[in-house]
C-alpha cells in the first residue's frame, strides 16, 4: 500500500503536465483517471486519451521533489478532481498514504483529505516503442517547427491524413515538416547536424500542439523514437507517445513553383493589421474574401460587403517588382500565415490570380515557405 | 451630416464604457446599437439594454480627446462591430464622416472603412431624472459597498425583489445597503458627512455591478439622483441610469441578533482556504454541506461524501469563547462571505445549530455584518 511524501508544487507541476494527455470527457471512463505508480526509485504518473500518452517520472534523486517513499504500489485517481484537491492543500509538503485498497489519505498541514481511487488493473497498457538509436532534437527548434506548420493542418475529418503534419527525414539529415488543409500549405525545412536514419511519418497536429505545451522551454533537447504506428518523444523525466496517422500524404512538392510574375516585400505587422481590418468586414458575409490590387506600383486591399460596409486601404511596401495583378483570397489564411512568421518582413510572390501565392520570410527564403490558394471571383 | 476627428484611444475608451449597457443578444434589435450624437460642444454616446442606460459625453474641451467637430448630426451603429473596427484602425487619429444618409466613412492612416448605420429616430428615449439636490458619494466608497453586498442578492427570478440591493437613507445621513437571497444576507452601513433627503429603493444587483465597471477609480465622486422608478449616477462625463425594482423589500433587521452562544475569531484567509477544500469534496454530492465542530476549544471542519471521499481538518483560531457546537452549512456561502471581507480576521458568532450565524470583520463589528443560514442535518 502506497506511502510517500512530496513537495506540493513539484507534484502539481508533474500532475498538470501529465493531465494534458487526459480528456475529462473521454468515452472510455478509465481514461479520465491518472495512474500513479510508486516504486523504490520514484513515482511515474501516466495519462492517456488513446491518441497521446504521457509518462512523467519524479525521481527520489530530484532535490526539488523532496520525495520520500516509504511503501510502493499503484492506484488510479480521477485526474481533474485529484489535481484540484492537491492544489488546494495548505502546506508545502504532502503526505500520500493508501489506508485500504484503493483508498488514500492526503495530509498537509492540519488538513486531511480521504479519496477513493480505482484498481490499476483495468488501465490500458501503453504500447512500447523500442528506444534505440534516437534522433536528438533541440526542444526549441522542434517547437518552433511545430508553431510554423501545425496551424495549417486541416481540422476536418473528411480527409484524416490532412489533420496531420508530414515529417520527413531524407538523405540522413534533411528534415522537413509540411502541413496543408488544401487551401494553404506551410513547409519548414532544416538540416540536422548529425546523420540519422531516414523516416516518413504523419503526426496528428493536435499531438504536436500538446507536445509544445508539455515540453517546457527548460527542457533543452528531446530524443525521438519511432515504431510502426507510434512516435515517442522523450526527455529526462517525460515520455510523450503519439499515434501516427495512416495513409499516404499528398505530394506537396509539386505545388512549389520556381517562377513568379510579381514579388512584393511587406512589413509583416503592417500587412497583418491591414488583413485584420479586412477580415472584420469580410467576415460579416459568407465566404468573405479580400481583394489585393497591385496597380502601377501601389498595393491596396479592398473588401465590399454590401450589407455591412467596405474597406479600402493602401498598404506600404518595402519592395515591389513585376506585373500588375488583382487577386482575391480569404484574409484568415494570410493572417494565420503572418502570425507564424517571425521575421519583420515578408516576401510575397504571385504567379497569377488563379494560382497559389507564396510567402517566405523577408530574411530567409530557403527554409520556410507558405502557400495560399486564391478564391476565384468574377 | 456628421463630421469630426478624434483621438482613437480616448474614443475607444468611451465606446467601451458605454457598451457595458448594451447586450448583443437583446430581444429588441435596436438596443444592440450605440447612438452617436454630435453637437457643437461634443459627442454623446448612448447605450441601453432597457434596464440600464449609459450616456457618455466627450467634450471638445477635453485635451486628450483631440476632438474637432466640423459638422453635427446623429446616427446609430452596431455597437460591437463598430468598436472592433475602431480598435483595428492604424493611426492615433480617426476621421469620422457621414457621406450619405446613414453611411459613414472612417479614415485613419491609409485605411478607409465605410459602414452602414441606422436612423436615430427609432432609438428609445431615456426617461429623464430631475437633476436637483444630488447626494454626492465617493466612487470608491460606493463601489466598496457594492462589492460587499451585491453578491448576496438572489439570482433567481422567483422572488424578483431579492435580485436587488436594498438602499436606504434614513435620518438624513444613515446610509444602509442590504442584500439577501434568503440563504445568506449582507448588510453595510455608513454615516454620511452631509445631511440629505431620505430614500428607500431597491436596485437590481446587476446594475450595481455594471456601475462598478463603468465608474473607474479615477472618477472621485458621483452625484446620485432619484425619480419614481429610476436612479441616476452622474460624473462629469458619464450618466448611468438604472431602473428600480418595484415591491416591498423584506424586513431584514429582524434577522439580526444581539446575543450569541459561541464566538470565534479566525484568520480570514485560513478559514477561506479550509472552506475551499471542503467545497471541492462537498460539491461532488448534491446539496453538499460542511460540518463545523467546535469542541473543547478546538474547531474542525468535516465533509463526508461517501462516493468521493472525506475532508477532516483543524482550523486555527485567534480567539474562542462559549459553548461547544456542531453546525452544518453550504461552504459556498461562507467562501463568498469571506471574499467580501477586507479585514485580516473575521468574527463568527453562533446562536444554535439551527439559527443563522453572523460574520463581522475582526476589526470593525458595527458597520458590516453578514448572516449565513445553516442546513439542518440529522
Automatic annotation (TrEMBL), chains A, B:
Its main location: cytoplasm. Gene3D superfamilies: 3.70.10.10, DNA Polymerase III, subunit A, domain 2. Keywords: Cytoplasm, DNA replication, DNA-binding, DNA-directed DNA polymerase, Nucleotidyltransferase, Transferase. Residues 137-251 form the DNA polymerase III beta sliding clamp central domain. Transmembrane segments: none annotated. Residues 3-126 form the DNA polymerase III beta sliding clamp N-terminal domain. GO terms for molecular function: DNA-directed DNA polymerase activity. Residues 255-375 form the DNA polymerase III beta sliding clamp C-terminal domain. It is found in: Cytoplasm. InterPro entries: DNA_clamp_sf (IPR046938), DNA_polIII_beta (IPR001001), DNA_polIII_beta_C (IPR022635), DNA_polIII_beta_cen (IPR022637), DNA_polIII_beta_N (IPR022634). The keyword Signal does not apply. Belongs to the beta sliding clamp family. PANTHER family: BETA SLIDING CLAMP, DNA POLYMERASE III SUBUNIT BETA. Forms a ring-shaped head-to-tail homodimer around DNA. Confers DNA tethering and processivity to DNA polymerases and other proteins. Acts as a clamp, forming a ring around DNA (a reaction catalyzed by the clamp-loading complex) which diffuses in an ATP-independent manner freely and bidirectionally along dsDNA. Initially characterized for its ability to contact the catalytic subunit of DNA polymerase III (Pol III), a complex, multichain enzyme responsible for most of the replicative synthesis in bacteria; Pol III exhibits 3'-5' exonuclease proofreading activity. NCBIfam families: dnan. This is Beta sliding clamp.
Amino acid at each position: 500500500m502506497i506511502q510517500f511524501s512530496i513537495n506540493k508544487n513539484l507534484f502539481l507541476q508533474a500532475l498538470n503536465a501529465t493531465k494534458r494527455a487526459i480528456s475529462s470527457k473521454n468515452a472510455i471512463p478509465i481514461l479520465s483517471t491518472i495512474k500513479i505508480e510508486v516504486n523504490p526509485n520514484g513515482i511515474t504518473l501516466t495519462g492517456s486519451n488513446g491518441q497521446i500518452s504521457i509518462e512523467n517520472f519524479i525521481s527520489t534523486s530530484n532535490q526539488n521533489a523532496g520525495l520520500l517513499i516509504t511503501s510502493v504500489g499503484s492506484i488510479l485517481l480521477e485526474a481533474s478532481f485529484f489535481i484540484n484537491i492537491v492544489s488546494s492543500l495548505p502546506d508545502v509538503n504532502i503526505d500520500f498514504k493508501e489506508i485500504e485498497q484503493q483508498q488514500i489519505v492526503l495530509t498537509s498541514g492540519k488538513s486531511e483529505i480521504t479519496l477513493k481511487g480505482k484498481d490499476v488493473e483495468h488501465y490500458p497498457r501503453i504500447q512500447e516503442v523500442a528506444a534505440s538509436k534516437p534522433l536528438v532534437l533541440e526542444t526549441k527548434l522542434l517547437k518552433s517547427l511545430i508553431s510554423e506548420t501545425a496551424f495549417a493542418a486541416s481540422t476536418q475529418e473528411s480527409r484524416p491524413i490532412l489533420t496531420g503534419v508530414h515529417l520527413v527525414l531524407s538523405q540522413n539529415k534533411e528534415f522537413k515538416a509540411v502541413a496543408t488543409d488544401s487551401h494553404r500549405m506551410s513547409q519548414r525545412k532544416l538540416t540536422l547536424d548529425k546523420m540519422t536514419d531516414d523516416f516518413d511519418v504523419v503526426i496528428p497536429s493536435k499531438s504536436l500542439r500538446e507536445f509544445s505545451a508539455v515540453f517546457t522551454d527548460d527542457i533543452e533537447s528531446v530524443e525521438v523514437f519511432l515504431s510502426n504506428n507510434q512516435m515517442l518523444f522523450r526527455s529526462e523525466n517525460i515520455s510523450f507517445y503519439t499515434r501516427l496517422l495512416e495513409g499516404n500524404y499528398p505530394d506537396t512538392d509539386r505545388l512549389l513553383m520556381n517562377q513568379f510574375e510579381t514579388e512584393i516585400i511587406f512589413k509583416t505587422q503592417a500587412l497583418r493589421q491591414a488583413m485584420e481590418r479586412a477580415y472584420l468586414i469580410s467576415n460579416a458575409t459568407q465566404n468573405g474574401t479580400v481583394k489585393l490590387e497591385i496597380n502601377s506600383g501601389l498595393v491596396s486591399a479592398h473588401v465590399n460587403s454590401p450589407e455591412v460596409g467596405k474597406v479600402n486601404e493602401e498598404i506600404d511596401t518595402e519592395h515591389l517588382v513585376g506585373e500588375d495583378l488583382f487577386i482575391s483570397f480569404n484574409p484568415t489564411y494570410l493572417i494565420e500565415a503572418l502570425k507564424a512568421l517571425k521575421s519583420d518582413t515578408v516576401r510575397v510572390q504571385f504567379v497569377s490570380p488563379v494560382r497559389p501565392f507564396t510567402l517566405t520570410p523577408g530574411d530567409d527564403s530557403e527554409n520556410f515557405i507558405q502557400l495560399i490558394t486564391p478564391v476565384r471571383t468574377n
